[in-house]
Amino acid sequence: MNTLLRLAGISLALCTGSLGLVPQAQAKEPAVAQTDISHYRGKWLEIGRTPMRLTDGCVAGYSIYKPGASPDQVLVEDGCREGSPNGKPKTIEGVGTLKDSKTRKAKLHVRYPLFFTFDYWVLYNSPDRTWFISATPDMENLWIYSRSVPSKAKLAVMVKKARALGYDTSKLEFPEF
Question: Does residue 19 register a pLDDT over 70?
Answer without folding.
Answer: no
